[in-house]
C-alpha cells in the first residue's frame, strides 16, 4: 500500500474515519473504544497485565519482547481472521493517552494496515521505515478525527484545547493538536463532515437547562440569555393567545409556573423562584426556568447529559 503524497493519504484516512463513525453508529462524546471493539466478533482487547498473567511472564517481558512498544500493539491471526489489540494501561499512562492508543490500534485494523500488507503485527524494527512511518501517521490521523473530529469541534464552537480535553477525553497534547486543526481556515465543508455533524445533532443541540453552572461538563461555554423586556401594562386576557405571557408576550408550555422569557410568576400562588435548580430543559432562547423560576444557562445538550438521559 503506497500513496504518492501526504495529501492523498490524509484524504483517504479522513474519509475512512468518518465512515467508521457512521458504521459504528457513533453520535455522542466521549467515544468508548470498548463498545466499538465489542461490536466485532473477531476483535479482542487485552491489557499487558492480563497477557503477562496468561503466559506466566512479567509485564516488562510483554512490553519488551511481545509488544516491543510502551503503548499498544495490534496483531492479526491470518488463519483465524482475528485481531488482538494489546494495550499498556500502566499507572504512568494517562487515561487520555490510553484512549488515544486504543483508537490508534483500531485505526491500524480498520485502515487495513495488517491485512493489506500481509502483516501479523506492526513493529518498527521489522518493517521498512517509510512504510512504518506511513502507517503510524495514518493511524494517528484516524484516531484524532474519530475521537475529536475537527469539524465536530467547529460545530461546537470550541475555543481552546482545555475544552477538547474535557469533552473528548484525550490528553492535553492531543487536544492542542486537534484545536489547531479545528481552527484552520477551510474553503468548504466536506460531505463526510456534514454527515458527521448531522449524526451528532442531538449532542450539539443548543438548549437551556436549569442547573448549577459548576455541574456542567464545560461550564465555560455556558451563557445566560437576557430577559425579555416587559410591557408597560400586562396584556388584557381577551387580547392574549393561549400559552402567551401577559407581561412580555413570550410563549410558555401548559402548566408553566413562570414565564421562560421574562421570569414573571404566571400563577397567583407562585411568587418566588426556588433556591435549588430543578434540571428542567427548555428552548435555547429561554432566560428562566418555567418550572422553578431560576435563571437558566444556554449550552449544548451533550455538555450536560449522557446519551441515555436524552
Give a brief rundown of this model:
The chain has 310 residues and is mainly alpha-helical. Helix content is 38%, strand content 9%. It folds into two domains: 6-204, no CATH class; 206-310, no CATH class.
| Number of separate domains | 2
Number of strands: 6
Low-confidence segments: none
Q: What distance lies between the first and last C-alpha atoms, to the nearest angstrom?
A: 43 Å
Mean pLDDT score, rounded? 92
- The percent range for strand residues is 5-15%
Cα-atom radius of gyration: 25 Å
- Work out the helicity level: 25-40%
Largest sheet: 3 strands, mixed
Report on the structure:
With 310 residues, the chain is mainly alpha-helical. It folds into two domains: 6-204, no CATH class; 206-310, no CATH class. Helices cover 38% and strands 9% of the residues. The chain has helices at residues 6-23, 33-38, 48-55, 59-67, 95-110, 113-116, 129-147, 150-155, 161-168, 172-182, 191-199, 201-204, and strands spanning 43-47, 72-77, 82-87, 206-209, 281-282, 297-300. The strands form two sheets. The chain has a three-stranded mixed sheet with strand order 1-3-2. Helix 1 packs across helix 7 (129-147), helix 1 runs parallel beside helix 11 and helix 9 crosses helix 10 (172-182). The chain is elongated. It starts with 5 loop residues before the first helix and ends in a 10-residue tail after the last strand.
Characteristics:
mainly alpha, single chain, 6 strands, three-stranded mixed β-sheet
